[in-house]
Amino acid sequence: MPGVTLSRWTMSYFALAMACLIAALALIVFGFGYPAMGVAAPQTLALVHLIAIGWLSLLLCGALFQFVPVLIARPLHSDSLPLATLIFLGAGLVLLLCGFLHLAGLPGPAWSVLPWGGALLAFGFCLAIYNLGRTLWAARPLALPARFVTVGLASLAATVLLGWAFTLVLGGVSASPLLAELTVGALPLHAIAGLGGWLTFTAMGVSYRLLAMFMLAPERDGRSTRAALWLGAAALTVAIAGGVAAIWVGFGPAWALAAGGLLALGALGNYGHDIVQLYQRRKRRVIELNSRMAGVALAHLAAATLLAIVLTVTGTLGHYVGALVFLTVFGWLTGLGMAKLFKIVAFLTWLECYGPVLGKVDAPRVQDLVVERRAARWFWLYFAATDCAVLALLADQPALARIGAAAMLLATGAIGHELIRIRRLADVRGAVRLPPGTRQPHLLVSLVQHA
Amino acid sequence: MTTAFVDLDVRPTLRAGGEPFGEIIGAVNALAPGQGLRLLATFKPLPLFQVLGSKGFTHEAREIGGGDWEVLFTPGDAPAAQPQNAPAAAPSTDEWPAAVREMDNRDLDPPEPMVRILAATEAMQAGEVLCALLCREPMFLLPELAKRGHAWRGAFEPDGTTYRILIRIDGAKGAA
User: Fold this and answer.
1) Does A367 contact B at CB distance below 8 Å?
2) Taking CB atoms and an 8 Å limit, are B147 and A74 in contact across chains?
3) Where in chain B is the domain with CATH 3.30.110.40?
4) Is A371 contained in some domain?
């Protein structure tokens, strides 16, 4: 059993992802897309995909290529596919965004590039699913966290299939009535499969292992964890497969979404119970910044769940869906993503630089690569600004929300700067910074030293 | 004469990512004269055929579905369980000496267990064995041990929460 080495391209995924997040926040600040424009405007579609694919999906793919092998104690099926995957996803995203801008009336070719963007993205995600799927398949029977990831990958496949179908219809390639019906009715299913299944469910699975690892808490594999897995998988199946079937037989997907929503509440309740247990039963009393900020992000997931219930019960979900998605994407997914990025980049950089000389010379600790006190200020600013923006959206004050987004942009830029400093070992002082036998890691690529 | 077989199922150990070699040799050494071993594994354990063959066992392997294998090791004319009569096995399959150093790293923050293990290995002599307890499989440590030429054997304890790893200093250099 050979263990796990550094995933060469994971830093490239992270860098491109952070660039997309910063670009998306800048667009919001400058009034491109929601909330300055409607939730269904083509500009908003471009913005949403810049965040969902450019930021969140690249972040998650980069992290999974490194950490699925850790979850299942087996090497990644292919170490060379991640680069091709990144190229296809990047190119597909650019074409998809151009296609949306074309819909918005901006100049472009006479034909639509949307289907091409959809095809390249579908191929890129297929490569990722194939690589991670083969890796998981070889490790059966899977531990619970890896089963969450498997359900997440299945949701990604559903998201991609629906999205590609939309691009074929909107791009004028297909006139199939089945696809046309999906394009009219399945947008909520596409969003739920992406944000709920792929991004949230996968993050939940990975969080079980990472939180237990970083806080020295006993792993959760009891009844509540299994309930979270099966209820979540059932919720996604009912909402997505049931929703598609309902659209094709002529009903709306509303009943499927309602049933899926109830199952999802059960899954989130069990997950919440597990997370509280992980924090309460940790052996490590003083926890690092990443675990504290992951806790804040998890509180935002709880808040988003509560908001969804309130909006549904009061019949205002349609009006405030933008605010709900904003809270889910920035409070929960982005908050958790940046918190874990802060730890993962430091750990991988430390391992790359000092792993070969550990025990032979004086080397810094992982904590010596980061300045938590400085970074903590930016994380708190980020979450406070996000909350202000959500409140402004709920108060129908889009201009105020954009001011909040400006503070989010500032904080995100500063956190990005901290990540670059970590990668450059800029905060490691003295002779331990680059002892004999070590070399400065590259910013974007991890070089693995073989025996 | 019909042979009585002792059952040993190493599939749980293998699925947990562990190394069942010590378990198998322990079971073989515990066999009474004339007893055989019925081994269940998740793959066809080719290396074992040679090792146990050198101890006088013949083998009969069949696939039992789901990728799993059943192997019957039957003692030959030579009495079983006499390791002192066995020819010298390859360095990766022989008996390891007792650990000269033991560490309990279960309550340390990652990656401190890895840091301490590597520091300890640097201070030990070739051929010596280090035993460490961990709370998970040390996935990032193993490539580093390989690079430094150390051999290791590790598996979860029966409690399923403690991972025990034995590291033999420079143990992989002779095998290479």
Assistant:
1) no
2) no
3) 5-82, 101-168
4) yes
In a domain, A184, yes or no: no
For residue range B21-53, list pLDDT tens digits in order. 778 878 887 888 788 888 988 877 776 776 777
- Whole-prediction pTM value? 0.84
Instruction: Give B134's strand partners.
Output: B163
**Kindly report the CA angle at B95 between B91 and B99, in degrees rounded to 5?**
105
Q: Mark yes or no for CB contact B120/A359 under 8 Å.
A: yes
Out of 2.60.120.1440, 3.60.110.10, 3.40.640.10, 3.30.110.40, the CATH code matching B101-168 is 3.30.110.40
Helix, strand or coil, per DSSP, at residue A8:
coil
CA distance A419 to A423: 6
Average pLDDT of the segment spanning B142-149 = 90
Rounded CA separation A420/B44 (Å): 48
Number of domains within chain A: 1
Query: Which residue, among A363, A366, A221, has the nearest Cα to A290 in the 3D structure?
Result: A366
Classify B78 in phi/psi space as left (phi over 0), alpha (psi -120 to 50) or beta: beta
CATH class of the region B5-82: alpha beta
- Phi then psi for residue A390, to 5 deg, are -65, -45
A77 Cβ neighbours under 8 A, 6+ residues apart: A130, A131, A132, A134, A135, A138
CB proximity A290 to B under 8 Å: no
Distance from CA of A89 to the nearest CA of B (A): 28
